[in-house]
Fold this sequence. Notes:
70 residues; mainly alpha; 0% strand
Amino acid sequence: xxxxxxxxxxxxxxxxxxxxxxxxxxxxxxxxxxxxxxxxxxxxxxxxxxxxxxxxxxxxxxxxxxxxxx
Length: 70
């Protein structure tokens, strides 16, 4: 509960799962791009992967009760 409002944990958990899939997909494309001469694209995709991973961690902190985190 945040600010007296109950969180839609199931929906947020689904978003976490979707982010996991996006992270895997972007990482795979970044890896493929790294093997090509277009280094700028690979670097940008790796930055997107890092940003998505950070967002996933933050969302996980919202979804997971403090007593279950570790």
